[in-house]
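Changelog entry

Holo records now carry the ligand SMILES as an explicit input line rather than a separate metadata file. Below, a converted record for zinc ion, shown in the new format.
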Amino acid sequence: MSSLAPLRIPRCLLDPLARLPPADAEGLVRVELEHRGGRITALRSAPDRGATPLALTPPVDPHVHLDKAFTASAYPNPSGTMAGALAANLRELEQRQPSQVLARAELALDRAWRHGLRGLRSHVDSLGPPVGWDGLQDLRRRWAGRLDLQLVALAPLPHWGTAAGEALARQVAADGGLLGSVVGPPYAATGADAARLEGLLALAERVGCGIDLHIDESDGPPAPGLAALVALVERRGCAVPITCSHASSLALLPPRRLARLAERLAAASINVVALPLTNLWLLGKRPGQTPLIRPQAPVQQLQAAGVRVALGSDNVQDPWYPGGDFDPVELLRQAPLLSHQLPWRRQGLAPFTCEAARLLGLPWDGVLREGSPADLVVLGATGWGELLARPPRRRVLRCGQWLPPPPQEEPSPLLMALEQQQLAPG
Ligand SMILES: [Zn+2]
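Structure line, unchanged by the conversion:
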C-alpha cells in the first residue's frame, strides 16, 4: 500500500458520499489518498499543514484530429482563415501516407498521455477510404490502458449515402468507431442536407455505432444544422448516441430561441462538444477587422437546459489552428478566458472531466472513490490563481505509477546550445 502526500482536489472529483469537510472557497478539499494495485484504497480528510498541491483526475479530450496534427509547418495557413485551412488540408490529404498518419498519432498520444489525458476521441479525414485507418486501430489497441482512443470516420454527408459509404460504416462499426460528417454552410436550400442527415442516422442505426458531427461551425446563420437535426430526432427518434461538435452559430440565436433549442437538444439526448480554441481562431476572421462577435457553443446555456457538454481542443498544430499541444491543463488554463468556464465551479470543470468521460461512455467517470483508478494530475500550483498565473509543472499518476514528465519539462536543446555558446571562451 502507498500513501500520497496531502492534495487539494476539487470536491466534484471526490466521492460525493465520502465523509469530508465542506469545500473551501475554491471548491477544493484537502485529502490524503492511499492506493494499492493501481486502485484507491482510502480517501480521507487531511489536516491543513501549509502549502498543498492542487490535483485533478486525468481529463478526457472529446475532440481532436490525430491524422492532421503537427502538419502546420509543412502546410501553413498564414491567413488563418477557414478557406485557407481547408485548402492547406486538402493539399496535405493529396499526398497523405498511412505511415505519416501513424507517426503523427503516435507522437500525439505520447504527448497527450504525458500531459495527463486518459481518453481521446479523434476524427479521421475519410473523403474516400480513410488513410491510415488500420494503423490507427492497431495504435488504439496498443495504447489501451494508457489512453482510451475513439475514432470517428469524418466523411462528407453524401458519401454516407453511397455503397462505399455503407461499406466504410460497417468497417467503422466493427472497429468500435463512430460515423462523422460536416453539417455546415453552405446549407442546401432544397432540403437535401436534411435527407442526407436522415440517411446517416439510419445508417448508424443499421450498423450500430454512434454519430459525431461537425455542425454549425460558422459565424453565419444561427444553428440551421442543429435545428434540422433535432427536428429529425424528434420526428423519428434515434437509437444511437449523437454528439454535436462545435455548435458555434447556436450562440447567435436570440436568448429565448437559444433556450428553447437547448431544451429540445436535451430532450433528444443530443450531446454537445464545445471547441472554443479553433472557433475563436477561425470564425469571423476578415481582413482589417478585429472581430467583435465570437461564436462558440454556449456551454452554460446548454448546461442550464440539461444538455451534456464536454470541451475539447480540436486542432493541434495543423492548418486549422497552429497552436495547441494535446495539453488539457493548458486548455483548462485558457477556458476561463475563452469561454468563462471557471474551474472552481462544478459546471466549469465538468466539461473537461466527468462530462467528457460520460460523453465518451468511458467506464470511469473521473470521480475518486475507494476502488477507482489511482490516477491523478498533480500540479505545481496550490490553487486556481497560481494555475492561471503561469503554466505549472506537473506529475501524472496512472494506476499508482508516476509517468515520465511532459516534454516541456525536459531541458530545451535550443536554449542549451545558446548557453553553451555563451560559456565558450572568446
Ligand atoms: Zn474538429
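Spot-checked after migration. The chain has two domains: 2-57+367-409, 60-360. The chain has a mean pLDDT of 95.
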